[in-house]
Automatic annotation (TrEMBL):
E.C. no: 5.4.2.6
Keyword check for Magnesium: yes
Protein name: Beta-phosphoglucomutase
Cofactor(s) this protein requires: Mg(2+)
Keywords: Carbohydrate metabolism, Isomerase, Magnesium, Metal-binding, Phosphoprotein
Top-level division of the source organism's lineage: Bacteria
Organism: Flavobacterium chungbukense
Reactions listed under catalytic activity: beta-D-glucose 1-phosphate = beta-D-glucose 6-phosphate
CDD domains: HAD_BPGM
Pfam families: Hydrolase (PF00702)
Protein family (similarity comment): Belongs to the HAD-like hydrolase superfamily. CbbY/CbbZ/Gph/YieH family.
Amino acid sequence: MNNKKAFIFDLDGVIVDTAKYHFLAWQKIAQSLNINFTHEDNELLKGVSRVRSLDIILGLGNVEASQEDKDKWLIQKNEDYLSYLVDMDESEVLPGVLKILKLLKEKNQGIALGSASKNARPILEKTGVLSYFDVIVDGNDVTNAKPDPEVFLKAAQLLHIDPKNSIVFEDSVAGIQAANIAEMVSVGIGEETILHEADHIFKDFTQIEPSFIEKLIG
């Protein structure tokens, strides 16, 4: 009996936490424009595109800008963000994640990344987990953002596994909704009050027992 399933992971907030680096890069742009940009303001940018994020920040400071300036700042933001990633290493992998990846590898399951990040590959490489992934689908490969399920459906397709035999690990509401729309099993990583639409919810990967994974494999 072939019980190979597709286990699809989001990147930021699930495998690693690069949100802090996005914040620092945006804050640097904001400061150069004399805009006060706080951690609270940063919440407005969660799950939002780079272009839209810049517009939100400019709105906070009532700053009008030409498209030329905007394009320049967007490039600057990404360069600053990437410069922070240079020092990433294995210690940035969130607690409990490696244990689950190793178990899935041992059980010969399909492992994929399904992320909006356009820097997914270098991040996985720097944190030493790239070799666990059979398939990587990131922001360079898809046109529709979550909650559109495109990123997850593409990952399942590349693994040659039916979406109904796929399990998604996500920390965002849009990601959980995307998994549910694709009729995949959704596993929320984070707060139950926020991710209540998920089929299963854990605070983090340290709470996931091997028996839970084995039950998902069936």
